[in-house]
Amino acid sequence: MAEIIASLGFSDRYDFLYMPSRGGTTFGYGFINFFTPQDATEFSRAFTDYQFEGSKKIGAVKPAFVQGKAAVMLHLRLKKPVVAPCSSEPCNRTETL
Q1: Is the model's pTM score more than 0.85?
Q2: What values do phi and psi take at 25, rounded to 5?
Q3: From CA 24, how far away is CA 93, in angstroms rounded?
């Protein structure tokens, strides 16, 4: 997902990406913390209806119930004690769970 975000021109506009998964397979959704509301709005426009290569799935964006990096990380810690934000950089450039 980080590669797709970068290909859309947003690689330097977020500091957190979490793609829940089990057994190496994602659940088909994720959480991104953009630096500004404008970054989030522009990403939403760019990613909505994005066609994933080799798949019938298309991109969609919805605001998360919990907003802000610190609040999301706290929510994830409380919900699930051991959570890895993702398997590779730049998913979480400043902290780990």
Answers
A1: no
A2: -115, 125
A3: 21
